[in-house]
Amino acid sequence: MEFSSFADTYQEAPIILTEGAIVERLRREYHIPLDNDIVHAGLIYNDKYRCVLAEIYKQYMDIAESFQLPIMLMTPTRRVNSERVGRSIYRDKDIIADNVAFLTQLKSGYNTPVYIGGLTGCRGDAYDPVMSLSENDSFKFHLSQLQSFKDAGVDFLFAGIMPALAESIGMAEAMETTGLPYIISFMIRKNGALLDGTSINDAIANIDSNTKTHPLCYMVNCVHPDVLRQALSYPQNNTLLVKTRFKGIQANTSCLSPEELNESVCLKSSSSFELGESMMALHKDFPLKIVGGCCGTDNTHMQKFAELFSL
Predict the structure, then answer these.
(1) Which tens digits make up the pLDDT trace of 72-97?
(2) Domain range holding 137?
(3) Do 246 and 211 touch, CB atoms closer than 8 A?
(4) Residue 206 lies in a domain
(5) Would the pTM of this model clear 0.90, i.e. be above it?
């Protein structure tokens, strides 16, 4: 079945779902060991683990299908870059292409649009902006893996949990060279700023001014809806630019700060009802187009989101 391009669906659809949590569910729900270098991107090379990964992705696609909503799936590759692959036991594999092929096969047969995004992230710790790259270094560092995503046939590119402006600009400039639609998703604090202190408004303004083909939109992930609602309420973000260009969240179920989340040894979660209420309160004040889950969420949270946003 032929569907519209991701860019066209973004413009036309009132709501697009994303997947919910993947990594945290693998670790805590299924107790699957994750690779030190590329985390869960190598699981497709183990028959048992591949089936578990497929089961989780299918849960999210089944929800989208039942509510006739388009859905964005991200490849499990946020930590797949040249440095990490080079020291990984999977360095002889074409990890990006193999993961894209895995998701492409999984989505076969669904009657709702399923779009595959090439997921990447910052070089260092997403919770520590001190480790972020400069604009120029970011462009050079990320360019090759982004081209690999294009060669593998993804529908869009997605930079997740970006903590600092400079690396986000370089990432956007590298993404722009591929000709694919792309999204930049930040890590933020309650004060309305990225972890390096740049306001959401200024981050969007700077990235847009440094690219000719701008990101399709901007988002946050691994952030609770109440945190984002507070962040967007600050005067520096209460702007036409933010209202026009900021369009999505992959929600964390906890309101803890980035540092508290990063250092937590146990999963901080909330029920699907509680998170759904927070998501709708956010949407009422700051209308969204893309909604999904991050750490702490599972299929029950995504089911609730689909129910609420389909009303």
Answers:
(1) 999 999 999 999 999 999 999 999 99
(2) 6-309
(3) no
(4) yes
(5) yes
